[in-house]
Amino acid sequence: MSDSQAINQAVAKLYNTYPFPPDPLSDDEPPGYNWRWSWNSAYSFCTGYKPDRQDIRILDAGCGTGSGTDYLIHLNPEAEIVAIDLSEKALEVAKERCQRSGVIAKHSKPVEFHNLKLEDATQLSGEFDFINCVGVLHHLPEPIKGIQALASKLAPGGILHIFVYAELGRWEISLMQKAIALLQGDKRGDYRDGVKVGREIFANLPENNRILKQEKERWSLENHRDEAFADMYVHPQEIDYNVETLFELIDASGLEFVGFSNPKYWQIERLVGKSSELMTRVEDLSDRALYRLIELLDPNLTHYEFFLARPPLTKIDWSDDRALLKAIPELHPCMQGWPSRNFLNYEYEMVNLSEAEYEFLLACDKNLDKQRNVEEIIANCLLDLAKVRSLWLKQLILLQPKPKIKN
């Protein structure tokens, strides 16, 4: 047996013992939203405009117990969806979750589940317009092979959403993993014993211990479940990245880096913006060097979440007033508390609208059938183009060119 096969078997054993994530099953549709799993909102984030196709193919690569799959089915009603995972037990839970929530019964297109490791995604038929890969690549024996397998299945103009661990924000986790492994000795690979050892360590560390403080401040709420504790502290395979090693992985995919999905973190102004001298020096840095500087100065980042694409991927920044006036606006699909002048946006942050902005969004909310353009709507709500751009930049609206762009 090769080292890669042994690692994959160990990972499968972990998730057969502790299926992850341990989110409870429900007879209701998934609550809330994750905008990164909505084709319309993710594509708009990557390109600036709403896609002109909804009948797409989506791959959930490493679906685990199906929490993300449940959302993908729910948020993309016209998509054909395929979910794969190497853990038979986790896949059983995923199927049950999506059946019980009712999303499959309401879905108009096929939903498939396959017991397949990510590196073997090449065995799937056809290509995919949207691939979701959350929390998987960093657990592979050879992540480059994994990302290349996904890249080979991404259709031209398609987007790939990835989530992998960051080393700086997981430093204490890494130390705890090594400590548990040392104390397990020959029992390493017995994941129930690993959880027992880990819990005993935390129960006895002094209150001022850095590892214990980090656990209490950031992770204890989710780690009360043994499944989450095992995934974090006794995983048999984990690779944590920094910006430099992350882009080595991205470059190996052969795909285009579109951007991080948490752009606010990657703004250097929030860290050294008060120093004109430092900001001048920043101008000489490449994008990647700038990213590295930011994570060094703010080492709390626990993961990277970003989009890749297979060209051609047309992008629009709506700086052209004429194009913006003719665009068809609609409400962003991920909001909570709407309609109101105060609601939660796509990132669950509070939004406070002016009366004119509220009237504009009300019109956008009713615009799917009417297909009115920005020019027609702002004539009735007295909102200028700068404010419309601001609503788009804040991801409160989606914009679709007219005539539609064909990729």
How are the SSEs ordered, and which strands pair?
Layout: H1 3-17, H2 39-47, E1 57-61, H3 67-75, E2 80-85, H4 88-100, H5 103-106, E3 111-115, E4 128-134, H6 143-152, E5 154-165, H7 171-184, H8 191-204, H9 210-223, H10 226-233, H11 243-253, E6 256-260, H12 269-272, H13 276-282, H14 287-297, E7 303-309, H15 321-326, E8 328-331, E9 342-344, E10 350-352, H16 355-365, H17 367-370, H18 374-381, H19 385-393, E11 397-400
Parallel strand pairs: 1-2, 1-4, 2-3, 4-5
Antiparallel strand pairs: 5-7, 6-7, 8-11, 9-10
Helix pairs in contact: 6-11, 7-8, 7-9, 8-10, 16-18
Number of domains: 3
> For the report, how would you describe the main beta sheet?
7 strands, mixed
Show unreliable segments: none
Number of helices: 19
Summarize this structure as a short list of keywords or feature phrases.
single chain, 407 residues, alpha/beta, Rossmann fold, 3 domains, seven-stranded mixed beta sheet, two-stranded antiparallel ribbon, 11 strands, 15% strand, globular
